[in-house]
Design a protein that fits this description.
Layout (H helix, E strand, L loop, with lengths): L6 E4 L5 H10 L3 E5 L9 H9 L6 E6 L4 H11 L3 E4 L5 H7 L3 E7 L2 H5 L10 E6 L14 H7 L5 E3 L8 H8 L3 E4 L4 E3 L2 E2 L1 H14 L1
Parallel strand pairs: 1-2, 1-8, 2-3, 3-4, 4-5, 5-6, 6-7, 7-8
Antiparallel strand pairs: 9-10
Length: 209
């Protein structure tokens, strides 16, 4: 039986043209950041972009320690398919939210991976990002991918942190994650995607894997 293709998520979308290009190239999901960030987008803009996406491209809303009711309101308004939780949200928070969600784990060491156990059954999967003190995510730095391989025993893993056209194939080959998440690695500037980098990313994946 052929192994399932690794899903590709492009995060930090702020412009329709970037969203449509990523979707056209083969992105499975697009991420919209609703918390303080150089890539932050307001619900009105995100909702408009999402309404114009082709079928089968999932929209993912990124939140950090947001009030549950606010998350629900934005999810409903923008018609988000999935919620990505980057803060200190507990498993109880995830369960009470009652939305399909990914819990982000900021990977520092093996203890970071062990913390995933408490979220099993309350989230659809995990996004692994690099731990940097004081930053909830979007670090642009890689971490020890051996830890990501260990993390797969807790559920579907989306690999993030410093991925770009140059290292994406190595990351997929080594970790074999359920999905990969790329943001700064395909940007011209924060929130603005570089068409050539996006095209190279997808070309490299399609050519080498």
């Amino acid at each position: 039986m052929e192994a399932q293709r690794t899903k590709i998520k492009i995060c930090g979308i702020t412009r329709l043209e970037d969203a449509l290009l990523a979707a056209d190239l083969g992105a499975d999901a697009l991420g919209f950041i609703f918390t303080e960030s150089p890539r932050q987008v307001v619900p009105e803009t995100a909702g408009e972009i999402i309404s114009l996406l082709p079928p089968f491209v999932n929209s993912v809303g990124v939140f950090v320690d947001e009030e549950q009711e606010s998350v629900r309101e934005i999810a409903a308004y923008c018609k988000l398919d999935l919620i990505q939780l980057h803060g200190n949200e507990s498993s109880g928070y995830c369960k009470a939210l009652d939305l399909k969600a990914l819990k982000v784990i900021r990977v520092k060491d093996e203890k970071s991976i062990e913390s995933m156990a408490s979220y099993r059954g309350t989230v659809q999967g995990f996004l692994l990002d690099t731990y940097v003190k004081g930053l909830p995510g979007g670090t642009g730095k890689t971490f020890n991918w051996e830890l990501a391989k260990q993390a797969k025993k807790y559920g579907p893993v989306i690999l993030s942190g410093g991925l770009n056209p140059d290292n994406i194939c190595e990351a997929i080959e080594k970790v074999k994650p359920y999905g990969v998440d790329i943001s700064s690695g395909v940007e011209a500037s924060p929130g603005i995607k570089d068409p050539d980098k996006l095209k190279l990313l997808f070309s490299n994946i399609q050519t080498h894997l």
